[in-house]
Amino acid sequence: MIRLQNVVKEYKNGVKALNDVNIHIEKGDFVFLVGSSGAGKSTLIKLLMKEIDPDKGKLYLANKDITKVTNRSIPEIRRLIGMVFQDFRLLQNKTVYENIAFAMEIIGQSAKEIRRQVPKVLNLVGLSHKADSFPNQLSGGEQQRVSIARAIVNNPTVLIADEPTGNLDPDTAWEIMNVLKDINRRGTTVLMATHAKDIVDVMQKRVIALSEGKVTRDDRKGVYGYEF
Ligand code: ADP
Ligand code: ADP
C-alpha cells in the first residue's frame, strides 16, 4: 500500500529531514507516526502527497512507483490519499454538505454521484443532521468529522491524518478516534501523525517512531514511548 525504500530528503539548508527511511504499510493497516517536533513526520507526509520529491530512494503508493512522476499525474496520486488536518481546513462560506460535495466536484464527479455519496459519508461520521450548517456553527469535534467525511468521500486507499485531535478536548478526541477506527475497519488504510500519548497507548496499533529523520521503532501494538 505504502512503501518507502531508503528514502532521503535533504532540504536546501542541509537538514536531512529523512535519512535512509524504510517503511512498508500494508493495506488495511492502522499506523501511528510519532516523534518529536522536527523528527520528519511532515516531510514524510509531503513526500506521499507529492508536494516534495525525495533526493534518494523509492516511494510506492497503491503499487504505483511515485518516486518520479510528471506534474500531470500528481492529481491522480493525490486522489489515492484523503487528508485530515489539525485545523480542519473547511471552507467557511460553504455548508457541511457543500464542503463535502465540493471535494467531489473538483474531480469531476456527476451531480447524481454526489447526491448519492455525500449523505452516505455524512451518515458514517454521524452528522446527517448538520448537513445545512456552516462550519462556524459546529463544535471542533463536529468540524473534524466533516473534514474526515470530505477526506473519504472519493474513496481514497489511504487516509492520512496530521494531528487530527490536536485541537480537541480529550473526550472529543476519542470520538474522532472512534470514527477513524470505524473507517479503518471498513478497509481504508490509516496513517496518523500524533503527539497524543494517551490515545496511542490505549489503541495498541502499529507505531512507527521517527527521530532526526530515522525510523527508531516500528512495533505492532506499539506505545507512544518516553524518548520525546
Ligand atoms: P515534524 O513534522 O516531525 O515536526 P518536519 O518534517 O517538519 O518534522 O521537519 C524535519 C526537519 O526538516 C526539521 O529539522 C525541520 O526544521 C526541517 N525542515 C522542514 N521543512 C523544511 C524546509 N522547507 N526547509 C528547510 N528545512 C526544513
Ligand atoms: P464544544 O464545547 O464541543 O466546542 P459547542 O459548545 O461549540 O461545542 O457546540 C455545542 C453544540 O452547539 C454543537 O452541536 C454545535 O453544532 C452547536 N453550535 C455551536 N455553535 C453554534 C452556532 N453558532 N449556531 C448553531 N449551533 C451551534
TrEMBL record:
It holds the Pfam family ABC_tran. Gene3D superfamilies: P-loop containing nucleotide triphosphate hydrolases. One of its GO terms (cellular component) is plasma membrane. Its main location: membrane. It is found in: Cell membrane. Residues 2-227 form the ABC transporter domain. Homodimer. Forms a membrane-associated complex with FtsX. PANTHER family: CELL DIVISION ATP-BINDING PROTEIN FTSE, IMPORT ATP-BINDING PROTEIN. This is Cell division ATP-binding protein FtsE. It comes from Anaeromonas frigoriresistens.
